[in-house]
Amino acid sequence: MSTEDNAPTPDQFAGQPDAWQRLWTPHRMVYIGGENKPRDTTTQQCPFCRIPSGQDEDGLVVYRGAHVYAVLNLYPYNAGHLMVVPYQHVSLYSDISPEVVTDMGIVTQQAMTALARTMNPAGFNIGMNQGEAGGAGIAAHLHQHIVPRWVGDANFFPIIGQTKAIPSLLADTRHQLATAWPTP
């Protein structure tokens, strides 16, 4: 098949049909390419090292512990997406002391309690991406994600519409979580 001027039609370029369906997401190349990602993550330029020196409201800090702090993710997967971050500028979980490991665990439990009190999630995703190849957005500074989840919250809206629906402002969420944070 071809058009009147003998130019091939688009279906002639598609190759052999296969069983795969494809969902094209070219907007993800911005993330893959690292746009707006800090390149210099030494302690002076690392956002996780700078945040604790500012005001909690400005840095979206929800809680400060002895060795770690809890902060809202500036680019959340879901409303209430928190991170537990050690004050120490270290990249791997295996490089932190037992005291920091303990504090991370306690603050993670406290974060789950605060999220349950304010947002009533049905579950949580908790994890760390370590190293650039492991998916860490800021690989030079260890951080653990705590993402509240609700049944049916995963859909194609972010992919197709290139939009993530976050139903509350980060400043409001920070205030709610800080107020609901359990006393140690």
Automatic annotation (TrEMBL):
**This protein's record includes keyword Nucleotide-binding:** yes
SUPFAM superfamilies for the chain = HIT-like
Q: Which species?
A: Jonesia denitrificans (strain ATCC 14870 / DSM 20603 / BCRC 15368 / CIP 55.134 / JCM 11481 / NBRC 15587 / NCTC 10816 / Prevot 55134) (Listeria denitrificans)
Gene3D superfamilies listed in its UniProt record: HIT-like
Protein name in the entry: Histidine triad (HIT) protein
For the ligand (substrate), the binding residues are N73, H145
Q: Which residues form the active site?
A: H143 (tele-amp-histidine intermediate)
Q: Which PANTHER family does the protein's record reference?
A: AP-4-A PHOSPHORYLASE, HIT FAMILY HYDROLASE
UniProt GO molecular function: catalytic activity; nucleotide binding
